[in-house]
Structure formats: C-alpha cells, structure tokens
Amino acid sequence: MDGVNRKTALNKRLKIDFYEKRLRGSNGHLCGKLKVMIKYLDKCCESTGQKLIDSNFQKIDSIFF
C-alpha cells in the first residue's frame, strides 16, 4: 500500500472508531450488524480495496445519520 492509501485507510479506521463509540449503548454492546461492518471494513483497510471501503461508509452513513 502506498502512503496515500495507508493514510486514507487510517482515516477510515478512525471513522470506524467514531461510529463504534457513538453506537455503543449504556451496556457497552454494539449491534451485530455494526460488528460485521467493522470487521469487513477492517479487512478492506488492510487491502487496497478503497472503492469497497468508500461504498460501505456511504451505507453506514445512510443507516446511522
């Protein structure tokens, strides 16, 4: 992965962290759907599948915002 993709992937991961913190309930548990998305996005961040990451963040945005 080149520097630009690595930085973008890191930014995406920070955004995942933001969603994760925002969506934890008072009991600290994430909903199952979000857990699956986080795992999938983490996998994409490790590869160069940038388009996949972007399209999935749009899906998350549309679900939660």
Write the layout of secondary structure elements.
Elements (H helix, E strand, L loop, with lengths): L2 H21 L8 H15 L3 H15 L1
Helix pairs in contact: 1-2, 2-3
* Spans of at least 5 consecutive residues with low confidence: none
**Net shape:** globular
User: Treating each run of at least 4 consecutive H or I residues as one helix, how many helices?
Assistant: 3
* Category from helices, strands and their pairing: mainly alpha
What's the story with the biggest beta sheet? Answer: none
User: How is the quaternary structure best described?
Assistant: single chain
Mean of all residue-level pLDDT scores: 63
Could you characterize what this model shows?
By secondary structure, this protein is mainly alpha-helical. It has helices spanning 3-23, 32-46, 50-64. It has one domain. The protein is built from three helices and no strands. α2 runs antiparallel to α3. The longest helix has 21 residues, at 3-23. The radius of gyration is 12 Å and the shape is globular.
What's a concise summary of this model?
By secondary structure, the protein is an all-alpha fold. The chain contains three helices and no strands.
Features:
65 residues; globular; mainly alpha
